C-alpha cells in the first residue's frame, strides 16, 4: 500500500503496523478503510471488479484488533463508526450492482494459517517478517466466523468457499472450473448463502 503518508515515513504502512501494532493499528486501519472505499467507488470500464480485500473484510481486522486489545475502546468506536458511515453513505453495494451492473460475490479462499505462514516465509517480504503464526490463526478464525460459519457479521453477498490450500497449478484449474459461477451471478437467482468447492 503506497501513499504520500507512507513516503513520509520511508517505510510501508504494513511494516509499521506489524513492527509496532499498538502504536500503528488505528492509523493503519483508518488508512485501509479509506483505500478500500476508494477501490469500491472507483468507476471501472471493465464489467467486473476483483479485489483482494474490501471495506467489508476490513471489519475482520478491526475485530481482531479489538479482541487482542491493540485498540483503545474509543479507537474501536471511531473505526466502527467510520465503517458504518461508509456502508450507509457510500452506497457501495448499490453502486456496484446498479450503476456498473456488477454483482458482488465474496470468494473466500479458505486457507490454513500454516499454509499462509509458509507462503509468506517463501515470498520473504520484509514488511511481513514479524507476522506470527498466532496472528494468522486469529485472522483465520475471525474470517471463518464471518464467511464460513456465517455467525459474526452480516454478509453483503453470497459466499463461494474455495480451498486455498492447493498449489497454484491446482488453484488455476479450480478457478477455471468455477469462473462461470463467479462471473455469472445473475443466472443463479436462488443462491443466497454459501457454496463450498
From TrEMBL:
Domain Deoxynucleoside kinase: 11-178
Keyword Disulfide bond applies: no
Residues given in the record as ATP binding sites: 119-123
Gene3D superfamilies associated with the record: P-loop containing nucleotide triphosphate hydrolases (3.40.50.300)
Single GO MF annotation: deoxynucleoside kinase activity
One GO CC term, this protein: mitochondrion
Keyword presence, Electron transport: no
Active-site residues, Swiss-Prot/TrEMBL: 52 (proton acceptor)
InterPro entries registered for this protein in UniProt: DCK/DGK, Deoxyribonucleoside_kinase, DNK_dom, P-loop_NTPase
Keywords annotated in UniProt: ATP-binding, Nucleotide-binding
Entry similarity comment: Belongs to the DCK/DGK family.
Record's protein name: Deoxynucleoside kinase domain-containing protein
Amino acid at each position: 500500500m503506497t501513499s504520500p503518508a507512507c513516503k513520509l515515513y520511508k517505510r510501508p504502512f504494513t511494516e509499521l503496523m506489524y513492527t509496532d501494532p499498538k502504536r500503528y493499528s488505528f492509523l493503519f486501519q483508518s488508512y485501509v478503510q479509506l483505500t478500500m472505499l476508494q477501490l469500491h467507488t472507483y468507476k471501472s470500464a471493465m464489467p467486473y471488479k476483483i479485489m483482494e480485500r474490501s471495506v467489508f473484510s476490513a471489519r475482520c481486522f478491526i475485530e481482531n484488533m479489538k479482541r487482542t486489545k491493540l485498540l483503545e475502546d474509543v479507537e474501536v468506536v471511531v473505526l466502527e463508526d467510520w465503517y458504518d458511515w461508509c456502508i450507509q453513505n457510500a452506497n457501495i453495494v448499490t453502486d456496484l450492482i446498479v450503476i456498473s451492473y456488477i454483482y458482488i460475490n465474496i470468494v473466500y479462499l479458505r486457507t490454513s494459517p500454516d499454509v499462509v505462514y509458509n507462503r509468506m516465509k517463501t515470498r520473504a517480504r520484509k514488511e511481513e517478517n514479524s507476522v506470527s503464526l498466532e496472528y494468522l490463526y486469529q485472522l483465520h478464525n475471525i474470517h471463518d466466523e464471518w464467511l464460513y460459519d456465517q455467525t459474526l457479521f452480516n454478509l453483503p453477498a453470497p459466499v463461494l468457499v474455495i480451498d486455498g490450500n492447493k498449489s497454484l497449478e491446482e488453484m488455476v484449474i479450480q478457478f477455471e472450473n468455477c469462473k462461470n459461477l463467479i462471473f455469472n451471478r445473475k443466472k443463479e437467482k436462488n443462491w443466497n448463502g454459501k457454496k463450498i468447492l
